Structure to design on (103 residues):
């Protein structure tokens, strides 16, 4: 059955429908209370523990990684940033010794 898997292009997440084999496992330890809460939440949503956990972990991972790649700026700040990128580079000429030994 096809599942939605994220494909990342230029820092933007794009969802694609394609079959994704699930061959990896992740074992975790938790308190009895944590396990109870997870099982209760998955029951409310009508999912099994694996589906609930994988979705929750994947969404949180995406949030963490997005915070590392996307920086929020105002329109004014963005305009200033782009303006700086469009300025010619200031080049300084070295007055040290020349490579050919002259001067």
């Amino acid at each position: 059955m096809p599942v939605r898997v994220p494909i990342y292009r230029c820092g933007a997440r794009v969802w694609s429908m394609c079959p994704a084999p699930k061959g990896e496992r992740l074992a975790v330890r938790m308190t009895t209370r944590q396990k109870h809460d997870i099982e209760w939440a998955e029951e409310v949503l009508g999912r099994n523990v694996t589906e609930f956990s994988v979705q929750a972990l994947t969404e949180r991972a995406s949030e963490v990684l997005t915070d590392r790649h996307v920086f929020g700026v105002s329109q004014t700040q963005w305009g200033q940033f782009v303006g700086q990128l469009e300025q010619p580079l200031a080049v300084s000429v070295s007055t040290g010794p020349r490579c050919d030994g002259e001067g």
User: Anything to note?
Assistant: The mean pLDDT is 79.
